[in-house]
Amino acid sequence: MYYIEEIRSAKATELLKKCGLSLPENVDYTAGLFDDNWQLVATASLKGDMIQGVAVDPDFQGEDLTGKLLTHIISRAKDKGMDSLHLFTKPDKTSQFEGLGFKAVAVANPYAALMEWGGGIDAYKRSLEAAKVSAAKSGAVVMNCNPFTKGHKFLVEQAAKAVDVLYVIVVEEEKSLFSFKDRFSMACAGTSHLDNVILVPGGRYAVSALTFPSYFTGEADLAKAHSAMDAEIFAQQIAPALGISVRFVGTEPFSEVTAVYNEVLKERLPKYGIEVCEIERLTDGALAISASRVRQCYEAGDIEGLAALVPSTTLDYIKENLWNE
């Protein structure tokens, strides 16, 4: 007989260490599975919609304790009103979770597979398909737009010339100085003069804390693995939903993580028939325009500095909606 109850996450430290894992940080819920002697033999944690820290004592493997734990975690998530859950596993371990209702969103060999319980990716693809316009050649740009700069505008304009329809996928994760609502609004205003450009949200599947956490943390040592997962989700799920055959990126002289991402896209997307086109970044004199320079001007209240780096649509939005707050 086994028993499952909530435990403090720190209580799982020794078991996780025994399994070669580290303690997840800032989790919302941790479950412990105990045997008849109340020895902790398995554990799993829930952080947002992510299942983390899944571990089974090696002496108790083969008894489907992972299944018992994940069934409990799924029930807990349902009680909280959640309809999708995610976890990462090794690419050769996906079948272990399929029997519990998980399916692979994408597999990024040799790093990991992203598994999902619920209909999150299917719902996201339906939203993309609703925005899709039939075209001979469709392309995509993925942007954070924090905020929308002259550099972003230049990249979109150049990309839009090369395709019949260009989808601008705006990163939805709320981990930027500007909110998603503000970033999306500025991007819409800054591209409104282009008839063949369609803006769509990135959801949980395009450069998000789920698919590409090092984009937000700057952890360059993890960038290649995270970039691979994000690239595979784009190739396996997003591009087919929108009929995309070319992905546009800007050259990256500032961010090591984004530079790695560009190289990973060039390596992986062509295998799916998706061309990667790199466009030289717009410069302001000798310096490439970067959103970080724009944010410095914004936080300093430097209107002249902002005017040199952002289109009038962004400057107007900031003055009317943000500096008036």
Label this structure with key terms.
14 strands; 325 residues; 12 helices; alpha/beta; five-stranded parallel sheet; Rossmann fold; 24% strand; Aminopeptidase
Give a description of the structure.
- This protein has 325 residues and is α/β, with parallel strands linked by helices.
- It folds into two domains: 3-83, Aminopeptidase (3-Layer(aba) Sandwich), CATH 3.40.630; 132-322, HUPs (Rossmann fold, 3-Layer(aba) Sandwich).
- Helix content is 39%, strand content 24%.
- It is built from twelve helices and 14 strands.
- The chain has helices at 13-18, 65-79, 95-98, 120-131, 150-162, 180-191, 214-217, 223-242, 256-268, 291-300, 303-309, 312-322; strands at 3-6, 29-34, 40-47, 50-56, 84-89, 102-108, 112-118, 138-143, 165-170, 197-201, 244-250, 275-279, 283-284, 287-288.
- The protein has a five-stranded parallel beta sheet, sandwiched between helices. The chain has a four-stranded antiparallel beta sheet with strand order 1-2-3-4, with helices on one face.
- The longest helix has 20 residues, at 223-242.
- 41% of the residues are buried.
- The model has no long low-confidence stretch (mean pLDDT 92).
